Structures are given as C-alpha cells and as structure tokens.
Amino acid sequence: MRIAVVGTGYVGLVTGACLAEFGMFVTCVDIDEKKIEMLNRGEIPIYEPGLDVVVEKNSKAGRLKFTTDIEEAVKNNLVIFIAVGTPPKDDGSADLTYVENVAKDIAKYMNGYKVIVNKSTVPVGTGQKVKKIIRDIVGDKYKFDVVSNPEFLREGAAVNDFMRPDRIVIGAESDEAVAIMKDIYSAHYLGEAPFVVTNIETAEMIKYASNAFLALKITFINEVANLCDLVGADVHKVAKAMGMDGRISPKFLHPGPGYGGSCFPKDTLALCNIAKEHGYQFKVVEAAIEVNEEQKLRMVDKIMGLLGVEKKEGVLEGKTISVLGLAFKPNTDDMRESPAIIIINELLKYGAKIKAFDPIAMENAKKIFGDKIEYCSDEYETVQDSDCLTIVTEWNQFRKLDMERIGGLMKEKNLADLRNIYEPAKMRKLGFNYTCVGRSK
Ligand code: UGA
C-alpha cells in the first residue's frame, strides 16, 4: 500500500509515521521547506513522546520519506490523507483554505483512481466540498473517492492513541474506498479492528460531537468542583463515585483551570458555528465555552483570595507569583490556548511579578510572554522569594516536590494547586495557605 500524507503537523506526522510502522510506504508532504529539511535530518519539529523513535526507524527502513513535492506524492500514491491545519477564523468558524488548496493540487496532479482522505477536523460538509473542488477540475477523466477518517489522538499520547484507537471511523460513499481504508487499518490488528462505517457527513459529525462532549464533561466537573469549594465537599470523591457508574465513566472528570489546547477550544467554537449556519443554536456547548473562559479567570480570583487581596488595579504590585507548568497539559510543549496564558496575563495586569518554569514548553512560552515574565531553570529556583506558588500544569515531576524545601524558599507560603496534585490536609500541616479546585475547604 502506498500512501501520501499532506501536512506534517501533529496529526499528519503521527499518521504518516505510524502507517509506515504498520509496514506501508508513506510519503509525507509539506509546503514548509524548513520543516521538511528538519525531518529529513531526523529532527522532529514537535515534542511528542515516542514519535522520534518511530520516525527514525521507518525512515531508515525506507518506508517513510519527507518531501515538498506534492505532484510526485499525488502521482505515486493511491491513498492521499489530508492532514493540514484548519485554524479558527475571527468568528470561530474553521478556515478551510489549506484543505481546499490541497484538494486543488490533488486534482491538478491526479493520474488515476485515488482515495482522498480527510483526517483534519473539518466542518460537516467539507468532504462534499473537497469532492466538488476535485470534480470541477478533473471532470469525468478519473474516478476518485473522498473519505472522512477523523483522528482521535491526544497530544502527549499521540503514538499510542494512533496505534490503539478506541474506534476507526470511516465515512465513505463507495465499497471500494471502505475496503481500501479497512485494508490500511487492519494491518495492525490480529482480530477485527473497531471500525464504524458511515456516510461522510456522519463521520465529520462524530469528531465534533466527541470533542464537544469531552469539553462538556470537563466543564461539568469544573462547575461541580466550584460548588464543592463552596459547600465543603471533595470533588475527587464525587468524581470517583460518579465514574463508577458505567454510563458516566471515570475519564475526563478531573477538575482544573479549564480545558485548553489546539482542539477543544477550536472545535467547540466550530461546532456552534456549524449549528448556527444551519439555523440551530447549540446552547449547551455555547455555555461550556463561556464557563471554560470564566474558569481560567476564577483561578486568578483564587490566587487573590490566598493573598488576601481584592481584585483592583495595582493590587498585586510588589508580589511575586511563581508558576509551575505552562503547557496546556503535560507531555507536550504546546502552549496553544493554555490556561497559563490567561492566568499569567491577568496576574501581570494587576501588577504581579511572574517567575515561571515548564519542563518542555519554555521556548514556546518565550514567544508568548517575551520579557514580561522571568524564566527559571527548575522548580526550586522558581519559588525562591515568591509570595505564592501556582501549579498550572500537572507534569509528573511536580507531583513529588520537596514541599518543605519549597516552603522554606518562599517569602509567603501560599499554594494554589490548580491541578489538585497535593493533599490539602498534608499541605496545611506543612504550613501552607492552600487552595485547589473543588477540595479547598
Ligand atoms: C483532544 C481529545 O482528547 C482527542 O481525542 C482528540 O483527538 C484531540 O483533542 C483532537 O481533536 O485532535 P488533546 O487536546 O490533545 O486531545 O488533549 P486532552 O488530553 O483531551 O486535553 C485537553 C484539555 O482538557 C487539556 O487542557 C487538559 O488539561 C484538559 N482536561 C482533560 C481537564 O481539564 N480535565 C480532564 O479530566 C481531562
């Protein structure tokens, strides 16, 4: 099986590398020459655990190559995955320019039957749009199929998620295309792979519905946590008991400073837009978006509460706040829509001095905050002389800090544990003025 993957971002690179790992011959294409040069030197442009090993192994074996030449990639391959970005436009709808440009290129260089697979998260109706773009250019000269095959991988666990998916969704209009897609994904299964075969629109909707539901779940537990704080309940116990109900499931019930990343914020907005375009208001998702924005700001209120000050101009002047964790979640260097951005910018707005550390995301953080904050080289340097320690991302290395030492280094022992990684009673015993999300009393 010969496959081309257009776009070497998270989804494209992981898809290309993992399909090569299954034994297929894969050509990854990108218009970004620098990125392709890097990949050809064996350097991975993103931080994703385990991806370097898969890329190196399959490049050496000759099953994985990187090029900017889309013409050759289209001509030499039967299946072409489109995995380019669909960034949000100002109104929240997805910008399809990159997808449409790839569709035009595919049409231009088509030389026989092709299966064109949309892997990017695209609004419902995009598959038909891609089909029309190609049909308008090639006419009846060649037969082709457009397939929607959304990806459900998480950053930081992408290789594993791709290799062991809960389901493989194939939205297609011909048996031939379905058979080819099944052939690709059956490669790594001994038994029957968990296929869900649908039409194109349903497959496109499955992706948005899944992400929006997960965003709702997180937002729901965040609101439960906020209420737990007020009534003196423990959200961890509430979530544990809720999760024991098979209908609810224990996953994605961890409260925190609000969801971030390149997917949930973008996809929830896009889903509301798709609904609007069809004359429908998706109220529950709109509410989740609003609550999630508030949740980030609520974290700033918590910090102010710890410091015993009221939210007003200049109130944090003279205060140093140390921040551990900047990436939107652990095991990634991705800062996109990270709650840390809103939280830090708010604290700066009220006059605080910020000292920050993240194990991997420091370079990306510098692009966002510039010289507005101080960058430290480890946890202990970060907390030195600070009035409050705020843990924003739950990196494993933050879970077992020497908290006695931390307390000794700080000017004031205030701890805002926004990911609930420490035991409240233990921290209070160590003399910390402690707050977290949903077990603060
Ligand atoms: C998400 C989905 O989990 C993937 O299934 C999907 O394929 C991907 O989006 C995508 O559309 O490409 P990702 O954004 O990489 O993956 O990360 P998640 O692990 O889902 O975390 C998203 C955000 O939710 C993070 O900010 C995380 O801290 C937060 N979160 C997650 C919580 O606050 N609580 C939880 O219980 C779980």
UniProtKB/TrEMBL annotation:
Gene3D superfamilies: Cytochrome c1, transmembrane anchor, C-terminal, NAD(P)-binding Rossmann-like Domain. NAD(+) binds at residues 30, 35, 86, 121, 155, 266, 336. InterPro entries: 6-PGluconate_DH-like_C_sf, NAD(P)-bd_dom_sf, UDP-Glc/GDP-Man, UDP-Glc/GDP-Man_DH_C, UDP-Glc/GDP-Man_DH_C_sf, UDP-Glc/GDP-Man_DH_dimer, UDP-Glc/GDP-Man_DH_N, UDPglc_DH_bac. It catalyses: UDP-alpha-D-glucose + 2 NAD(+) + H2O = UDP-alpha-D-glucuronate + 2 NADH + 3 H(+). It comes from the Bacteria. Substrate binds at residues 152-155, 207, 252-256, 260, 329. The active site is at residue 263. One of its GO terms (biological process) is UDP-glucuronate biosynthetic process. Keywords: NAD, Oxidoreductase. Its EC number is 1.1.1.22. It is an enzyme of class 1 (oxidoreductase). GO terms for molecular function: NAD binding; UDP-glucose 6-dehydrogenase activity. Residues 322-424 form the UDP-glucose/GDP-mannose dehydrogenase C-terminal domain. Pathway: Nucleotide-sugar biosynthesis; UDP-alpha-D-glucuronate biosynthesis; UDP-alpha-D-glucuronate from UDP-alpha-D-glucose: step 1/1. Coiled coil: none annotated. Belongs to the UDP-glucose/GDP-mannose dehydrogenase family. This is UDP-glucose 6-dehydrogenase. It comes from Deferribacter autotrophicus.
